[in-house]
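Attaching the record inline, Q. Sequence:
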Amino acid sequence: MASTPPSPARKNRPAATVRRQRAIQATQDAADAQKPKKPPAAKAVQAGARRQPATPLPRQHLRKPGLEADMALSPNFLAPTYEGSNKLRGKVALITGGDSGIGRAVAVLFAREGADIALAYLNEHVDARETQRCVEAEGQACVLIPGDVKNPAFATRAVARTLREFGQLDILVNNAAFQEHAQGLEELDDQRLEETFRTNIFGYFHMARAAVPHLRSGACIINTGSVTGLEGSAHLLDYAATKGAIHAFTKSLASNLIDRGIRVNAVAPGPVWTPLNPADKSARDIQQFGGKTDMKRPAQPEEISPAYVFLAAPVCSGYITGIVLPITGSIGA
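Structure, as predicted:
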């Protein structure tokens, strides 16, 4: 008499499942044992045009607002291997927070691409004059406009000064920011919240509102967001909230202005070596700044600024509006 084949229920008994899983595991274990050991991971990934500084960074804490001239390790912003090709020839850009950091690097590359520059900044006159010197070395004009973006009257004056000096405005880069860490929500009093929000998001509204009436079809606005606006930050609660708001503002304003031919985009950097961070973190903590990225180091401003050229140049991004471009040194931001 033929034997009855085991029922599916008998095949799927727990003991049989365990045996199958262990057999699969044993096969994989044997394969893993044959693999060569991976070499130790590099301390920092260097995939750009030149080698950039990595952790540990100098122990230093700057007084706010932070001067690039006082940094023990000067940020790389000149992008010496970047060759201009007149992608912004004949254009005028107004850049807030343009005295140092990302703003300075953007000003230099915009000038290398043929744009004249208006720099709006708080009171970092030494840094601003150095940025002006670098812009002029690229063969373009540069005007300095000190003032506080929290004040809507300053936004009006900055735009009016730009128009008076250059007769036009084609690119607005909203970049000025305030950042101060906190261990918890309880440390964020109303004064700190107001300073962060009025600088980081109110200031963007003030500048855009003053600039938009003077922007023609083909003009653009570029906002500086942050990886913290994409992922959040346990100790930058207010700063991260403003950066998330900037991302939403970017997309909303892009929708509002698209029929006028004005593009609005944002760049969301990860950790970047600028005065903003040693003016926030302690001297001890700043040594490991950027070390938790997949590239295991912070970006230098010259690694971020080409993205602004891309988003500013109609020849590169004339069909792009309402995006937030992450440049974070990590995968999947």
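The chain has one domain: 88-327. The CA atoms of residues 96 and 120 lie 5 Å apart.

More tomorrow.
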